C-alpha cells in the first residue's frame, strides 16, 4: 500500500510543478488565477493522501475550510478581473 501512496504523492508533486510553471508563465490574469486554484487543490489533495497514509482524520475540518477559502478566493478574483475587463 505504501507504493500507491508514493506514486500518488509523486504525481501530485509533478502536477504541482506544472501548475507552478503555468502560474509563472501564464498569458493572462485568468490563467494565473486558475493555476493558483489548481495548485491549492493539489495541496488539499496531498494533505488528504497524507491523512490516509497516517490513518489520521483529525484534520478533515481544516482541509475543508482551506478548500472553501480557496474556492471563494478564486471566484472573487475571477469576478474582479471580469469587472475590470468590461470597463476597458
Automatic annotation (TrEMBL):
One of its GO terms (cellular component) is plasma membrane. The keyword Transmembrane helix applies. InterPro entries: MrpF/PhaF-like. The chain crosses the membrane at residues 6-25, 34-53, 59-81. It holds the Pfam family MrpF_PhaF. Keywords: Cell membrane, Membrane, Transmembrane, Transmembrane helix, Transport. It is a multi-pass membrane protein. The keyword Transport applies. GO terms for molecular function: sodium:proton antiporter activity. It is found in: Cell membrane. Belongs to the CPA3 antiporters (TC 2.A.63) subunit F family. This is Sodium:proton antiporter. It comes from Actinopolyspora erythraea.
Amino acid at each position: 500500500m505504501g507504493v500507491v501512496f508514493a506514486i500518488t504523492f509523486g504525481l501530485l508533486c509533478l502536477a504541482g510543478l506544472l501548475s507552478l510553471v503555468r502560474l509563472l508563465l501564464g498569458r493572462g490574469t485568468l490563467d494565473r488565477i486558475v493555476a493558483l486554484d489548481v495548485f491549492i487543490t493539489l495541496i488539499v489533495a496531498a494533505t488528504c493522501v497524507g491523512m490516509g497514509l497516517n490513518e489520521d482524520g483529525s484534520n478533515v475540518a481544516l482541509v475543508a475550510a482551506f478548500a472553501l477559502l480557496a474556492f471563494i478566493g478564486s471566484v472573487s478574483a475571477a469576478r474582479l478581473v471580469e469587472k475590470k475587463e468590461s470597463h476597458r
